[in-house]
Amino acid sequence: MLKKMGRINQAVLIILYVLITVKAFEMEIIPASKIVVQIGEMLVLTCNTTGCASPSFSWRTQMDHPLGGTVNNYRTYSTLTMNPVSIENYNDYLCTAFCNEKGKKEKSIKVELYSFPSDPVIEISTSLVAGEPATVICKIPDVFPSDRLEVLLMKEGHTLHAKDFSEDDSRNKETKTVTYSFNPTTEDIGKEITCVAKLPIANMDFEPKERVTSLKLNANFGPQNTIITVSPSNFTVEGNPLKLTCVTESNPPAQVVWSKHLADGNIEHFIENNVLSIPHARFTDSGLYICEVINLVTNKTEKATVDIFIQAPPKNTTLSIFPSSVVKQGESVTISCTSADVPAVQITLRKKIGDVITTLETEDGKYTIDKAQLKDAGIYECISINKLGKQSQHIVLDVKVPPQNITVLVYPSENVKEGENVTITCSTYSNPPSQMVLKKVHQEREIILPSVNGTFTLYNVTKNDTGKYLLDVFNEVGNNIKVIEIAVIGKLEKRHQMMPLIIAFSCTTAIAIPVVAILIYVSRKAKINGSYSLVKALRLKV
């Protein structure tokens, strides 16, 4: 009995040994039974066996489609490599392993594909210009399956546009596009527009299932609201610094061109910079300045202008007389007093005669004398004055007057006795001073009595001195003639009782003006003193 039990235990041990030392024929596919792979990547399926020393392998798809990969067999396993994975690899793959007397084993694995390789790409159809239509384009590259794709266009967290592709029946990976049109504003500058692409495929384990791209908006606009600021002020004093700044709203920044309207109507161009600096302003810097701004992207321009007034003391003060500073009595004279280019100047025209100053009323700086007289001669002064200074000019008006108001006095009388002396005194007004010639009328000839310092003297007259004498008083403007008749009668009884007959002819010409200045100016011209000897002159023949 004991022997029998021993045999049984020995047999059991042998069976257990065989069971332990001999493995069963098995196979598996690595990775697991369901694979999710992105198109374009590499996938290696491994069919591995145990319990068979030299198995053989075969690979096929469930629908006998092309494998779309490369098979490599090794001692106990086989690989199917798909590099890269393409859309044709969307299949169930079956691996069959054969092991001689142990038979065969089969395993299948499902390969599920997707394609969501990169973030969306945001494009703008054109350069954004504020107020003008634009289109935002969001591209989702190489999507599969596209019927699961969902896209959102958002701005600052607010949805602008949403689209799904559920009705898309494409069986290939494709780039999908979503477009949205809108009118950008200046407020959109710097804001983000976002494209959110989702591929929410249930029961497929892959990441990411959502991709996001954002783009900051940069809307071009302008120029607009262009102004010119002036520092310290558009009214400044000559010599001070001046800075003009052109301020505008523009994206991209505008190009700036400065110009200035000149007095002759032309335009002077300056540097292309938004700041125009004048270190030391001059009066000639006054004028209308123009700032023109140009946005080269939007192709729009805008202008701003400012008037600049450089304040300065009076300058270029001009005093002129038309037709001339020397005129004849009775002619018309216009005196003009101006101060060119400097604003806020008070102009005064004055007439000065000595210490007497008379302010004249002018019209637009002009003073007209319809018929000039000797009293109008004198010094005229033009004064330009403002709060910064004073400037003056003067000019002398000379009025030419012919001899007039001639007075002739004969002393002691026009009737004298032989042996006496005769004196003739003459006075007149003229400018310039008059010259005088005394002539004695003779039947056969005319005797000229030249003057010496304007005085004619006849000593111890005789009857031969009886007759007509012509006094010619003249200057460059005109002349006047006076006739004098002298009669010499009788002869004195006693020589010592005879009174000398003295004919004294003195003519003094002066310009009669009620004020001292003109007398000073013209008296030296108007006064002539001289003496003539009638006795000697009678010997001269003409």
UniProtKB/TrEMBL annotation:
Residues 25-110, 223-307, 314-398, 403-487 form the Ig-like domain. GO terms for biological process: cell-cell adhesion. Keywords: Cell adhesion, Cell membrane, Disulfide bond, Glycoprotein, Immunoglobulin domain, Membrane, Repeat, Signal, Transmembrane, Transmembrane helix. SUPFAM superfamilies: Immunoglobulin (SSF48726). The chain crosses the membrane at residues 498-522. One of its GO terms (cellular component) is plasma membrane. It is a single-pass type I membrane protein. It is found in: Cell membrane. This is Ig-like domain-containing protein. It comes from Anas platyrhynchos platyrhynchos.
